[in-house]
Amino acid sequence: MKICIYPGGFDPFHKGHADVIVQAAAALQMGKEDKFIVVPDPRCKEGSNSSLEQRNRMIDITAAEIRKKIKSEIKVFNPYGHVTEDEISDITASNSSYMKVAVPRIKEKYPDADFHMVMGADRFLALKERGSGALRENIVVVTREGQSDIDEVTNAVADETLVKKPVVITGKFQDASATAVRQNISGNGGYDEIRDLISENLYKFIINQGLYQNRIKEEKQ
User: For the whole model, what pTM was predicted?
Assistant: First the structure.
């Protein structure tokens, strides 16, 4: 069984994230018996008012809309379980890496799986620069066509000192930004302005939950 681990803030989980899952699943030839495990950072982004439970739900909403495009199951994994807001504050204060907790726990849960880790070009290059032990994993590096650091990634992958050669995916990923989504909604923008970034179902959930609307609430006071 192949398991592809996809960490990130996902605040919210947008169409660009969905594109990564679809194309990584295709590149790894993942089937029905395989799993794509999305691991959200328990800490929310600066200026965001989303809880971990709400971010989990947003991942589920988007995942449901892309399951027709891939055969594999998409699961959300919270490395700390159901943490309280105080516990999340402690994690933030310690500046600890939640993935150092998540990866061993996922491997413990699926001891016989073939693991792969998805990351962007910037993350891969930073790990390469530090000589991180994370590069001993099977890595899938995601780059967008026309991205400025594609040559740098190519040269890094060719380095003979790498224990394992990453799989590099260069595709036409949706140019989406979670920050752009939050700013649009915070500024009272409408769905038409961000329909290329998130689905209508996700937009409705965000509005119904009162997420990212900090400025709107401040203006009404």
Answer: 0.85
